[in-house]
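Lecture 7, part 2: worked example. A protein chain together with glutathione.
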Amino acid sequence: MTMTPRLITIAFSHYCEKARWALDRADIDYVEDAHLPLFSYLPLVRAGAKRTAPALVTDDGTVLVDSTDILRWCDAHGRAEPLFPPGDDEVVALEEEFDRHLGPATRRLGYFYLLKDKRATLDVLAKHGPRWERVLGKASRPLAAALLRRGLRIDPAGAERSRAVIDRTFSEIGERLRDGRKYLCGDRLTAADLTFAALAAPVLLPDQYSEYLPREELVPPAFREVADAYRATPAGEYGLRMYLER
Ligand SMILES: N[C@@H](CCC(=O)N[C@@H](CS)C(=O)NCC(=O)O)C(=O)O
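Predicted complex, written out as structure tokens:
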């Protein structure tokens, strides 16, 4: 029996955004099973996945527990040009590098600014996931924020380290783009481009990601300032350009 693939997510997670982008691009029919942070554990464990979102339960019941595996599955089952062109080791290396370093850094910096602001946090928590999670998430916001802060080491020193990782990555990508190329590898979008743009989204705040962000007027000014600075860099402009093609 085949079923519609189910993507289990933390709705606003950038790794989940990466998976959604690949599935949408490959024109694959799927349903999103969206949750709030921490509440995501139950459906993930039930599906036999790891604790991290996203996980994809495919049409034959296979469970993919990592966003990179989901991208590869899209290549095998979708209709788009492959995100991993056969034999292109550079795409593989860049994608892996962004996953390991850029993703955790943008997540920490984004949470650092978001969690300080109660109204902005509540706005994000109110948008997706089952109603009971949103009600409970709202009521337990201080506890949930404390757990996230501890679990992800979201503090001023951590934020500074993450900022340095993002700055380094952005300047390396800026260097790469200096010869005027439109994409990181070759002349079309690959997993490297998609992964950079999705994982940079928490600091670029692309319009196309706005349904996962606090409403414009609730974005804390310090957060907006940081995002504006990243948006103005060559790597930031390029990330936003990838989003225009999303
Ligand atoms: N390598 C994983 C990372 C995914 C990841 O870090 N997901 C986060 C959300 S942004 C998560 O589910 N965290 C919950 C936890 O680690 O307990 C992937 O690419 O799928």
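Residues 10, 13, 15, 40, 51-54, 66-68, 99, 107 surround glutathione (CB under 6 Å). The chain has two domains: 6-77, 89-244. Keep this in mind for problem set question 3.
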